[in-house]
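Q: I'm building a small set of examples for a reading group on sequence design. Run inverse folding on the following structure and report the sequence directly after it, with nothing in between.
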């Protein structure tokens, strides 16, 4: 029952992408999934208070990558880089290790938990988060 609900949520995000228009103002980054060729362009704009004022994407790819882009764009808006970093780490744990990050609210992205069992699809689910790493998190959170 829960798996069916999650599957429907993924399909809904893939078919009716949220925050999908090209953004005319702000910064952008084109990103290509190195394992399958799915592509996205991420757009973002920071607010004066240091939070992410707006975020959107355009892209083409499988249902998992497009749903993940849509979900990510919803949960990172109005967050600080530190908040986004925590969300990024939680998604990595969910997808790569199969651990539900109970202390972090991943919103609809939690429906991607089943991707953990599909190793070949890990980069599909993590594609927008990898783009965020390249776009702005790597500069602020170097290991």
């Amino acid at each position: 029952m829960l798996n069916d609900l999650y599957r429907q949520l993924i399909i809904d995000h893939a078919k009716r992408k949220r925050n999908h228009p090209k953004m005319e103002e702000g910064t952008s980054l084109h990103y290509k999934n190195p394992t399958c060729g799915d592509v996205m362009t991420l757009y973002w704009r920071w607010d004066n208070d240091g939070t992410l004022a707006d975020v959107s994407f355009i892209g083409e790819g499988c249902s998992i990558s497009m749903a993940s882009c849509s979900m990510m764009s919803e949960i990172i808006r109005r967050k600080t880089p530190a908040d986004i970093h925590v969300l990024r780490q939680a998604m990595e744990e969910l997808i790569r290790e199969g651990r539900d990050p109970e202390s972090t609210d991943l919103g609809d992205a939690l429906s991607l938990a089943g991707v953990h069992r599909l190793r070949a699809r890990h980069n599909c689910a993590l594609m927008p988060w990898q783009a965020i790493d390249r776009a702005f998190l790597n500069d602020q959170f170097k290991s």
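The longest strand covers residues 52-60.
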